[in-house]
Amino acid sequence: MRESTRNIAIDDAKKCFIYIGILNLSDMLLTLVATIYDYGKEINPLLSNVVDNIPVFILIKGVIPTFLLMIIYFRLKKGKLEDIKRSIKYLKLCYYWYLIILSSHFIWIFNSIFRFSILS
Question: What is the structure's pLDDT at 116?
Fold first, then answer.
């Protein structure tokens, strides 16, 4: 029974990691669109210096975080049930935070597009 519960928790954690990875890649793409078309700028001081260098930006914002998520997931699979359940709470918090970030990106981009289309 305990092993079954642990497997369910690992599956839940895996879903969270996948969702966070997808949201991270979406964040990266929306940031690129916004900065390339001058709808906005990267406000993260660590990334604002590399956003103009697209391959480096993709590496830093897309590839490295995805790789780190995979490493954390594989380490978490070996953890205790209590640790996995606690981690799921933090993963969900991260997931909801990313939803807020992406929502702000959409508002920012659509506001810029709408504002520019009215002025044209």
Answer: 59
Beta strands in the chain (DSSP E): none
CB-CB contact of 16 with 92 (8 Å): yes
pLDDT tens track for 35-82: 888 877 888 888 888 988 999 999 999 999 999 999 999 999 999 999
Q: Within the chain, how many helices (H) and strands (E) appear?
A: 4, 0
Q: Are 110 and 36 in contact, with CB atoms under 8 Å apart? A: no
Q: What is the DSSP letter of 59?
A: I
Beta strands in 34-105 (DSSP E): none
Instruction: Write down the pLDDT at residue 106.
Output: 81
The pTM of the full predicted model, rounded to 2 decimals, is 0.82
| Residue environment code for 4-34, b if the CB has 16+ CB neighbours within 10 A, otherwise e | eebeebbebbeebbebbbebbbebbebbbeb
Tell me the angle at which helices 81-119 and 64-76 cross, rounded to the nearest 10 degrees: 160
